[in-house]
């Protein structure tokens, strides 16, 4: 067993209606003025106003910023930082999925230490604590509320860069399953399979530890039996609760174990072809699992038993059975099965592979991977 470090330096509130605890959390942190980061879509659905009212009816001040977009850019981070500094707020509430939380984390970095967000690209370049962040996820998928990374698109390089530091972890995560029970089926499916892949890749990572394994296994135990049911009926409270908590456990796991080739290769797909992150992961999943089979040390069977529809453990398991099972799962969720279906073309594979190789996730993939391997995997998934 290799050496490892693990800590959970956050407070996590879970429960139906737990949003009502927000004012108490803010007062506990002596924050009378909060900067609320979200997007226009959630504002139109009334989610932003609902949370703003909860905060303001308790006598606190709330400045709303709705500039978040999918695959947020360096310009969005700069704009959010400027608005935060002008507002006079002393804390941030991030409402949404990974995009809102990535903007909140990176805004917190620049508001505290200034500079350009590209100065902090890579591992552990944030020098210390940042603005307190309270994360309120509206999807069960990204795990960003408990992860130490932020992914921001640098349009100057056409590259999705990662800023990774445990100093960026939100101080609080408020997990209210009410927030995910009105999601469209397509979003529930894409986010849900992303959460499952977070747990799977963390579990297979060469950087895994007994602590991350415990989180990953519990995530798969919660998500595996509930993902199909949640996509079928988002009003199913038990399934919604399981997905919300499972996504958070998966986020804790990959915050420390990192991920693998799937995530390393999916980020360029979003940067070059604007493929939805969860969809890109779902398409790559069977291809990468097949590639990694020769490095399996018995974990494929455990994953298979977590996600298959039958409650009985498999007899005479072979790793190919897991590949077949994830294909069935993707089909049940209505996921595309090839990259060509989502508009990806072969002419960008070299550039995409070069970008994928810069990801720290490549280094912990269970099977060693070269740039030629990445190009071949893209071609196979095409």
From TrEMBL:
Molecular-function GO term, any one? alcohol dehydrogenase (NAD+) activity
List each coiled-coil range.
Answer: none
**Keyword Protease, does the record have it?**
no
Carries keyword NADP? no
Q: Which residues form the Fe-containing alcohol dehydrogenase-like C-terminal domain?
A: 189-382
Q: Write out the similarity annotation.
A: Belongs to the iron-containing alcohol dehydrogenase family.
Q: What is this protein called?
A: DhaT protein
**Protein's organism:** Loigolactobacillus bifermentans DSM 20003
Upper lineage = Bacteria, Bacillati, Bacillota, Bacilli, Lactobacillales
């Amino acid at each position: 067993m290799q050496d490892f470090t693990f800590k959970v330096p956050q407070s996590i509130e879970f429960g139906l209606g737990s949003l009502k605890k927000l004012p108490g959390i803010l007062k506990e942190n002596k924050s009378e003025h909060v900067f609320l980061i979200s997007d226009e879509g959630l504002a139109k659905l009334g989610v932003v106003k609902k949370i703003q009212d909860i905060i303001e009816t308790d006598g606190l001040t709330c400045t709303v910023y709705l500039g978040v977009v999918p695959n947020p850019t360096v310009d969005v981070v700069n704009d959010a930082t400027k608005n935060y500094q002008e507002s006079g707020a002393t804390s941030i509430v991030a409402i949404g999925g990974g995009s809102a939380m990535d903007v909140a984390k990176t805004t917190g970095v620049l508001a505290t230490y200034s500079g350009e967000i590209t100065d902090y690209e890579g591992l552990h370049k944030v020098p210390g604590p940042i603005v307190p962040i309270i994360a309120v996820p509206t999807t069960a998928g990204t795990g960003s509320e408990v992860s130490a990374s932020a992914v921001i698109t640098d349009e100057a390089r056409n590259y999705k860069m990662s800023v990774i530091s445990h100093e960026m972890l939100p101080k609080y995560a408020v997990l209210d399953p009410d927030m995910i029970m009105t999601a469209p089926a397509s979003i529930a499916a894409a986010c849900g399979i992303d959460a499952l892949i977070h747990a799977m890749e963390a579990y297979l990572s060469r950087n895994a530890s007994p602590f991350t394994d415990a989180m990953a296994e519990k995530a798969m135990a919660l998500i595996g039996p509930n993902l199909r049911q949640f996509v079928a009926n988002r009003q199913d409270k038990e399934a919604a609760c399981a997905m919300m908590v499972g996504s958070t456990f998966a986020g804790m796991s990959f915050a420390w174990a990192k991920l693998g080739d799937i995530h390393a290769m999916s980020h360029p797909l979003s940067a070059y072809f604007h493929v939805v992150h969860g969809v890109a992961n779902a398409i790559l999943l069977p291809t990468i699992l097949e590639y990694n089979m020769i490095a399996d040390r018995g974990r494929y069977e455990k994953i298979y038993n977590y996600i298959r529809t039958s409650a009985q453990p498999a007899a005479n398991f072979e790793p190919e059975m897991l590949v077949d099972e994830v294909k069935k799962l993707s089909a049940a969720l209505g996921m595309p099965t090839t990259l060509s279906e989502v508009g990806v073309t072969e002419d960008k594979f070299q550039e995409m592979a070069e970008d994928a190789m810069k990801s720290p996730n490549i280094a912990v993939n269970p099977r060693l991977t070269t740039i030629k391997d990445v190009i071949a995997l893209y071609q196979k998934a095409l």
